[in-house]
Amino acid sequence: MTRILGLVLGFLVCSQSASAALLVSYAFSSGAPTYNGTNGGLESGPATASAFTATGSGNGAPGAANGGQWLTASTVNDSISDANFNRMSISNNSYSGVTVTSLSANLWKSASTSTGTANVKVSYSLNGGTSWADFGPDAVISSTSTASPGSGETLTLASPITLTAGQTMEFRFQWFRSGTPASTNRFRFDDLQVFGSVASVPEPLSIATFGLVGAGLAVARRRKQR
Predict the structure, then answer these.
(1) Where in the chain are the domains?
(2) If you write DSSP's letter for every residue of 99-147 in order, what string do you get?
C-alpha cells in the first residue's frame, strides 16, 4: 500500500509542476491578445490577458493598432511621460501559480529618413498598485532600424514573479526618443510576447484517488494493530 501511495504522490507532484510557456502574444491587427501559448499557457482559460490600450493624448500619445502593428503618435516625447503610455495586464484566475519571466517585442522607426533612436520603457505593477517597477535590469527596448519587422529584444525580470489565483500583473509601455529624430518620427511596435510558466492544478480524479489511497492505508493500519 505504501508503494501505491508513493506512486500516486509522484503523479500529483508531476501534475502540479510548472511548464515553460508562451503566456500571451499580441499581433496588433487589433489591441486584443492572441493566445498562442503551449504547454499549459494562458490560452486554456483560467488565466487571461487584457487588451493593449492607450492612455494619454497630445505630444507623446501612445497611438493605436495600425496596419498590423502598433503605431505611435507622429510626435514622440524626448523623455518619458507619466501621462502617456500603453498598458496591458495578465490575470491568474484559478491556476495554482502563473510565473512571468520575460517579455520580447519588435520595435522600429516608420520614417526612412529619420535619425536617432526609438525607445519604449517597460514597467509593471501588481494587483492594481500605484507604484511601478522596471521590467528587469534593462527595461528599455531600443532600435535605430527603419526596417520591418524591426530589431527584436527580450527583457528578463531579475526575479521571476509568480501570480497566485486572483492576482494581476499590469504592464506599462512608455515611448520616448533619443538623439536627433525628426519631429515626425513614428515608432512601430509588433510581436509582443510574454513568457513564463504555469503550475497546473491536480485533476479532481487525481485528488479522489489520493483520498481513496489514504483511506486504504488507514484501514490497513487498523488491521495491523489488531
Answers:
(1) 26-200
(2) EEEEEEEEEEES-TT--SEEEEEEEEEETT-S--EESSSS-EEEE---S
Do strands 117-126 and 168-178 pair parallel, antiparallel, or not at all (unpaired)?
antiparallel
Band (pLDDT 50/70/90 cuts) for residue 37 is very low
Write down the residue that cell numbers 491587427 correspond to: 29
Report how far residue 73's alpha carbon sits from residue 179's, in angstroms, rounded to the nearest whole number.
18
Q: Which CATH architecture has domain 26-200?
A: Sandwich (2.60)
pLDDT digits (tens, 9 = 90+) for 94-124: 788 889 999 999 998 877 666 788 889 999 9
Write 75-78 long-range contacts (CB < 8 A, 24+): 75/183, 75/184, 76/118, 76/175, 76/176, 76/177, 76/181, 76/185, 76/186, 76/187, 77/175, 77/176, 77/177, 78/176, 78/177, 78/178
Residue 213 C-alpha cell reads as 489511497
Q: pTM (2 decimals)?
A: 0.77
